[in-house]
TrEMBL record, chains A, B:
This is Bifunctional protein FolD. The gene is folD1. GO terms for biological process: L-histidine biosynthetic process; methionine biosynthetic process; purine nucleotide biosynthetic process; tetrahydrofolate interconversion. Catalyzes the oxidation of 5,10-methylenetetrahydrofolate to 5,10-methenyltetrahydrofolate and then the hydrolysis of 5,10-methenyltetrahydrofolate to 10-formyltetrahydrofolate. It catalyses: (6R)-5,10-methenyltetrahydrofolate + H2O = (6R)-10-formyltetrahydrofolate + H(+); (6R)-5,10-methylene-5,6,7,8-tetrahydrofolate + NADP(+) = (6R)-5,10-methenyltetrahydrofolate + NADPH. NADP(+) binds at G162, R163, S164, I228. It comes from Acrocarpospora corrugata. Residues 136-275 form the Tetrahydrofolate dehydrogenase/cyclohydrolase NAD(P)-binding domain. GO terms for molecular function: methenyltetrahydrofolate cyclohydrolase activity; methylenetetrahydrofolate dehydrogenase (NADP+) activity.
């Protein structure tokens, strides 16, 4: 058996086209404030890519750049101002920040209706309580990818490997809301392979290259690899792709699987946020 | 084999004594505002019990009673006033509310630092993100009960049956934070008994009397029954106690198991909240 390849690039294009269509049809032009602090080269590349993709989709580019020596108070004031600015419909604070800054406190200043990364406590709470809200882009992208390929979630055994705030934990919440039976595994899980073999849908976001081998996969399972690592052999995920594709029913490649979905969902979230009134408590909007 | 009985009354007394000791040793007298709306007899009994227990522990009783015809705006104004009142250190809005009121919107007006029931979006978000915050009383009580009996959580397979905002979902988060491998099951789970048999620790909060029978329990497992139902044969839980106690290693009785823990944790949360400065973002306080 050779697994079906779940192409994220294709689905991401569809998501971006849909977001661009919504933006073109809307009265309100979304404006995304990408906030970049310091000179981390990886962050600079990520932010540049995000800005370029946003502009192509009809989103106004409201980039803010700060030096590595910016103070907590200066950055807080800037985020407050972006929060108050009606032309700014989305705010993305690129992480990590330099160590002298309190990232959690700064993220908390983003109004939930502009929280296009879904990282504030309010957004996390809305997800946990099953209320409408903006969701973190990567797990939302995984869900979109599964849906695009018609993979049924209701009643399925889903296993999430990894419990980060960015991926593992919100992924589990999203799957639970879609009626999967959800298990979260992590570094303290006693028999990881046995737990993973229970999965109809296995989502791996552990940050360890090649962690999941063929013996951890039930024949025919869907395997989603969130990991991405630079290795001497090129980009690799958390899943041993070559071995696992002979067992799985479907699998995401690395690169070209989950990666493109993350940025696509940022665009989708930005389009969604622009449709929200300020302080949209209880508003009905895109939720998964 | 006959399971050890996990007595909640005994542990609850210890928790209450500890909270009373903290209150007696503190400069600030906690004041709990219990907000009761309308004439639901069960709610009236619950609130009366909570008030009595709080007073016995040295908490100031700041009860507020509203008629069933109170408007959303009137209740919102009252909660705002309690939020602003420095003598009120905890606010408990007794649910359910009459159907003309938007309970979620009213709960959201409780400042997170006074949210002794742990029900606001901010509290749920802090729990989901693993940050300090006030946790919902019932799952916190289950954790306390497990700890009091020395039941190891790290690496254990924990299965939670039920995914309510009040119990199932926060329970899963608390267990995950304590390094258990956590599965959440619910009405759409395909083979509930098989999933439950994986559990070293099985926590049942499904709201269905006698749902869990002996075939769903691994020999030696710890079984925590959150359900409570009035039946012709007296109070019963979600677990078939008579059958399961012959298989399990430890089990909570109904009544006298989780029930007493819930109110004890309300007192503990109220003592904790009184130690918090207003707007205690990022404060280090009791968290699980």
């Amino acid at each position: 058996m050779t697994a079906k390849i779940l192409d994220g690039r294709l689905v991401a294009e569809q998501v971006v086209a849909r977001a661009a269509g919504e933006i073109a049809a809307s009265d309100r032009v979304p404006g995304l404030a990408t906030v970049l602090v310091g000179d981390d080269p990886a962050s600079a590349i990520y932010v540049r890519n995000k800005r370029r993709r946003c502009v192509a989709a009809g989103i106004r580019d409201l980039h803010r750049k700060f030096g590595a020596d910016v103070t907590q108070d200066e950055l807080a004031a800037a985020i407050h101002a972006l929060g108050d600015d009606p032309g700014v419909t989305g705010i993305l604070l690129q992480l990590p920040l330099p160590p002298h800054l309190d990232a959690a406190a700064l993220v908390s200043l983003i109004p939930p209706e502009k929280d296009v990364d879904g990282l504030t406590e309010t957004s996390a709470g809305r997800l946990a309580l099953g209320r409408p809200g903006l969701r973190p882009c990567t797990p939302l992208g995984v869900l979109e990818l599964l849906d695009a390929h018609g993979i049924a979630l209701s009643g399925a055994e889903a296993v999430v490997v990894g419990r980060s705030n960015l991926v593992g934990k919100p992924m589990a919440q999203l799957l639970l809301r879609r009626d999967a039976t959800v298990t979260v595994c992590h570094s303290r899980t006693r028999d990881l392979a046995a737990a993973c073999r229970r999965a109809d849908i296995l989502i791996v976001a552990a940050g360890l290259p090649g962690l999941i081998t063929a013996d951890a996969v039930k024949p025919g399972a869907t395997v989603i690899d969130v990991g991405i690592h630079r290795t001497p052999d090129g980009l690799r995920g958390d899943v041993d792709f070559t071995a696992v594709r002979t067992v799985a029913g479907a699998i995401t490649p690395v690169p070209g699987g989950v990666g493109p979905m993350t940025i696509a969902m940022l665009l989708a979230n930005t389009a969604t946020a622009a449709r929200l009134p300020a302080n949209a408590y209880g508003a009905t909007f895109l939720s998964s």
